[in-house]
Design brief:
Layout lengths: L1 H18 L4 H25 L5 H19 L5 H28 L4 H25 L3 H17 L9 H4 L5 H7 L1 H18 L2 H7 L4 H21 L6 H18 L9 H24 L6 H28 L4 H22 L19
Length: 368
């Protein structure tokens, strides 16, 4: 339900922003502000969620995000829209780390869990696409109701008893990051350039002739492909191999987007994109979370913050390219090249990670 709301907003925010008068540069700046707040809250709440009950965190944050979403997006004012879009990053930055930790504490498979997130993306973008055909702001009401619904469901969950509060102090935030630096950096670079593309993605599709319904079909194809792959394959393959595949296929997907001259050609290419993200995301998630029995929210918080900081760099990259006279296709070419270089770098340097034993670190007794 969280992902149902997330992709609905992400897909149609640029269209609504343009409709109320924001320029491409202002849309990019708004996306960067949202990413900055998301990044900051992902770090803070990922760490605090290891101290407090994850379920309580999720319920509070989901309620807050729902209220912000429905309050801010329905006012057709440029300044208010930017402010509330930025503030919604507070809630979204809190949700994912606590949710991942809940699932991990319960011992569920990360591929299975992630597949339901992709299913939420698929369902959400289809429903909001149909709603948007009649009244675009109604997609924001739909997203807000999904967030509120997720908190109601979360009330039925029970926090697992664990000793994570005592083990929390054994590893610092920096230590957890350093143990898995090649994975976090690779994901960060790839996702930054992907976010440069997604900043104007719906506007790019609009230029190719797609309306809100066909934009929904395109996004659905991507998300539903992720759902199938995550359900059937991502819990079976080695995490490092999936990360490598994800980076390579991402570069191929970004290049392929430059070829079609209408939106029909984009639809089959979304299968390739869905395949690449399914492997990369679940591979990274398993690599960072399943290899530890402690600080799971911190690990997932770093993962979420890595993606969030990409939400800062991506729009800035897009803004620079557009300001220098480039267009949406130029962004895709640069993203493809950067991701391909990241694939090569990860292949050669992934062995540089040297996992540390928490019991041997010097950070005991410090909450950092």
């Amino acid at each position: 339900m969280v992902n149902l709301a997330t992709l609905s907003l992400f897909t149609y925010v640029p269209l609504w922003a343009q409709e109320i008068g924001l320029s491409d540069q202002e849309i990019a700046i708004m996306a960067a502000l949202f990413g900055f707040v998301l990044f900051t809250m992902s770090i803070i709440t990922g760490r605090l969620s290891d101290v407090l009950a994850n379920r309580k965190f999720f319920v509070v944050c989901g309620s807050f995000t729902g209220v912000i979403t429905i309050a801010g997006y329905l006012i057709p004012n440029k300044a208010i829209f930017i402010i509330f879009r930025t503030l919604s990053g507070l809630g979204f930055g809190m949700l994912t780390p606590s949710l991942i930790a809940i699932v991990s504490d319960k011992g569920d498979k990360m591929g299975n869990f992630s597949s339901f997130g992709s299913f939420g993306w698929a369902a959400g973008v289809m429903i909001s696409g149909v709603i948007g055909m009649f009244w675009l702001p109604a997609t924001f009401i739909f997203a807000a109701l999904a967030l509120v619904g997720s908190t109601i469901v979360a009330l039925s969950l029970r926090d697992e008893k664990s000793d994570k509060q005592t083990k929390l102090t054994e590893d610092s935030f920096i230590t957890v990051f350093w143990e898995r630096k090649s994975v976090y950096i690779s994901l960060g670079v790839r996702h930054s350039f992907a976010m440069a593309i997604w900043t104007f993605w719906s506007l790019f599709l609009w230029e190719l002739g797609a309306d809100t319904f066909w934009i929904a079909i395109i996004q659905f194809t991507n998300a539903f492909t992720q759902f199938i792959i995550m359900q059937k394959y991502t819990d079976k393959l080695a995490s490092e191999r999936m990360i490598t595949l994800g980076l390579f296929l991402s570069a191929a997907a970004f290049i392929s987007f430059t070829i079609p001259t209408n939106f029909w050609g984009i639809i089959p290419l979304q299968v390739l994109l869905g395949l690449s993200w399914a492997f990369l995301y679940v591979g990274t998630l398993r690599y960072t979370v399943e290899k530890t029995s402690f600080d799971k929210s911190t690990s997932s918080g770093i993962l979420t913050s890595t993606m969030a900081i990409s939400g800062i760099f991506g729009p800035i990259i897009a803004l620079i390219i557009i300001s220098l006279g480039g267009d949406y296709v130029d962004i895709m070419w640069i993203a493809a090249l950067a991701t391909l270089l990241t694939y090569v770098g990860f292949t050669f340097f992934k062995k540089a990670d040297k996992p540390l034993n928490a019991s041997n670190t010097k950070n005991k007794g410090q909450l950092t």
